[in-house]
Amino acid sequence: MNAVEVRGLTKVFHDEARGEIRAVDGVDFHCRPGEIFGLLGANGAGKTTTLRMLATILTPTAGEATVMGHDLLRQPEAVRRCLGFYSASTALYPRLTARETLAFFARINGLDSQLVKARVEELVARFGLADYADARVEKLSQGMKQKVSIARTVAHDPPVLVFDEPTVGLDVLNALEMQRTIAEFRAEGKAIIFSTHIMSEAERLCDRIAVIHRGRILACDNLAGLRQLTGQHYLEDIFVALVGG
Amino acid sequence: MRLDSSTVATLLATELKLLLRDRRTVVVSIVLPLLVMPILLFAGRTLEERRARRLETTRFTYTVTGSQAERARQLLEAAASSAGAPTLLLEERDAPDPEQALADKSLDLWVQALTCEELPPPAAPARTAGEGEGREEERPVPGVPVIQLVFRGDRDRSGEAATRVGEALRRVREVERATLLAEAGLPLPAGEVVQVEERDVASAAQVTGLKLGRLLTVFFLLFVLSGGAVVATDTLAGEKERGTLETLLTTSAGRREIIVAKLLAILAVAVAITLIQALNFLAYVVLRLIPLPADFALELSPGVAAAVLAMLLPVAALVSCLLLLTSGRAHSYKEAQLYFFPVFLLTLLPALAAFLPGLALRSPIALVPVAGVAVGVKEILTAAPDTPMLLLTWLVNAAAALGLALAAERTLSAERLIAPAAASELGLKGDELFQRHALRAFALLWALLLVISVNFEGKLDVRTQTAINLLGVFLGGTLVLVHRYRLDPRRALALRPVGWPVWLAVAVGAPAGLITGMGVFQLASRVVPVPPEVVESFSRGLLSAELPLWQALIFLAILPAVCEELAFRGLLLYGLHRRLRPLALVLLVGLVFGVFHVSLFRIAPTAYLGMLLTAVTLLTGSVYPAMAWHGINNALVLVAAHGEAPLDEVPPLLHAAAAVALATAGYILWRVRTPYAGLRRRQ
Fold this sequence. Notes:
The complex is a heterodimer.
Chain A: E1 4-15, E2 19-31, E3 36-40, H1 47-54, E4 62-67, E5 70-71, H2 76-81, E6 83-87, H3 98-108, H4 113-126, H5 142-153, E7 160-164, H6 172-187, E8 191-196, H7 199-205, E9 208-213, E10 216-221, H8 223-230, H9 235-243
Parallel strand pairs in A: 3-8, 3-9, 6-7, 7-8
Antiparallel strand pairs in A: 1-2, 1-4, 4-5, 9-10
Helix pairs in contact in A: 3-4, 3-5, 8-9
Chain B: H1 5-20, H2 23-57, E1 59-65, H3 69-81, E2 89-92, H4 98-103, E3 109-114, E4 146-150, H5 156-183, H6 204-242, H7 244-249, H8 255-286, H9 302-329, H10 333-351, H11 371-381, H12 387-411, H13 415-418, H14 430-456, H15 462-484, H16 489-492, H17 500-527, H18 532-542, H19 549-576, H20 582-595, H21 600-620, H22 624-642, H23 652-671
Parallel strand pairs in B: 1-2, 1-3
Antiparallel strand pairs in B: 3-4
């Protein structure tokens, strides 16, 4: 069974000055457990809007989607319970400690209150947060904040994870650490949707890649399939061949 | 939708934890008010005591001049030594040039004693030393010496000398007057010729209740606003700015639960601050930092206290919801702070209803949020509660709070607000940018108009004032904005010809609109009673003798029709037409038009006219019919005023006929409609 199913998802923004903007235009894809599905596109291609719709932050104008069988429009809370959402713009509460942050997100996502403490300690141990678990987030370094942020994404152990350009603004070491962590989640059987505009990242991590441009998916396959489709070897060339740049 | 109480509890606990860990909030909302008030009160009291002590020991220097100098010296001596009066220490000095001596501070007071005939003719009215409210102006009487106290108002000591010597001289005069009357055969002191007594049949507690009742809602709102504003700004706008709102929205907590938790946090802080301030106030009273008036006799039974609290609770909820909504509508912390001044005004102004004399809760005021509660609280404290009306106003406020809470919930779904990146102004063309800035630009014009109105109203004649407002602010402002944003004047100002049936509709609709507008005015004046003198003063403006009818028509009918229509139905409507649907456009442009007419009592009828004119422009796609309608409307008012026709006494039958005529005009315009270009479509 697919963990995520997206069919004809469309988002039209009404901008007061520019009128209608079709940010996402009839997108279809799916993602299986234990798979990293990549959304590859330039800035403004519609990646973030698609993922925000999947996380129920934005309401689709048309189309439908399910997450672990829950309908996006009819069961938004159930969808969010099955989903961990990480992006460069999802910040942490600066005045909570790392431990309080994890406990809060575990509890708010419906984890049984008796299990919260054990889950927090498990995450503290897994992400190596023990030394600064009781320090306020505002006092932590960028790398530490990143670890706390990933830990809060999986605080309720969701089966589906969404990473929206997770390495934006990170240095090389932290970006590699992030890629390793995402690969570990795949090994644990989680369905992962990963958006990026960095070709090497998509090439290294993703099992299947959808190239998105101006709100439309131009091609969706594994790397071998995309090579066959475009006759290009490197993902960068594949991307250029598809978007016609 | 079911509310998950455990999620709300988790969110609320975290909200409060975050707030208490925010030093800014704690210091600004709790510590500062707690410290500043006692320090101010203590400092004020100490300064007052020091001043009183200093006055007891200050020796004021003076000189006496004039033909009646000896008489003045006698009086001053009597004044300084009169028994039972406050100590007054005086020292006479020689001063060849008293004015110079006052300037170089070697003298505090110059006493000029003259006869009535020697008195120079009065120039501009000067302040008399010790001038008090309600004292009659004294006129010189032949044969009676005039003592002028000359002082320097820019020196405290000189001013104090004049005040204290003036008061002492008046006391001496009272005594001398009584003596003279006694010598002339009238043994009674002058003040006892007729005895006037007042007897208040209300209990002291009721009188105190009236005084407190007028103020209580205002003070309560101040505390709720001061405490709640900081929290509300941080809780939604602050979260948006920090990026934590998006994180929160990706959790399984529902938006309703998030809003309820945030609302409870604001309410908790607001109520806590109110309680702390109430206890603070009691502590001042106990410590005698605040002396209570001698007639202060508050009887606050537990039942009355509970009733007052029950009435104030929905107001606290309403204000909290409004603050939350404001914060939710803002993209950033800074933007939220900008909105709070209008929120303060919007909330506090209705609370002043308790000060309006003769306004009872058994009136339409019960339906006005906040204002009804203010009047209701006053009635409870004066032991005259009207239970059914109290219940009604409670429900009105609770419903208003609920409506605002739901609106606040919707802000969490407003994508433009959640994803501010979509609202970027980069790369926008002039007219796109103007559509974002239209309301801001008109807020600036309004502020400009207010400044002009406050500073020049009554000082300039009607022609100059009108020319400044219409040609300077409205037409000038419109042209500057068209130029600044490089707008196409034809499109931006809706300069487009229309067919003849439109003019027929205008000819029928304009008089009908005026008459129905008077009905709106009468309805509005039931909610906010208009003092007759205000209406009279407005009418005087229209009927000014300096302004013949033909000039009045130019300045008060034609110019407003052209300039105001270009600004409101032209530029403002263009700025908003893609943001709002037609009905919302009609309401908003009409309301802004009403608010620009500054006087409170004119807002409702002018907003109504503005709505009609906006509807006409939307139906015709042109500003010209609105100009004609506006001009006819104003011209009819002027002609009626000059002919002394009482527009405010229109019989109900004429109202009904006007309504039919208005509907007919609307029907014609609908049938021949050429709608405004680029209106927002229903999705």
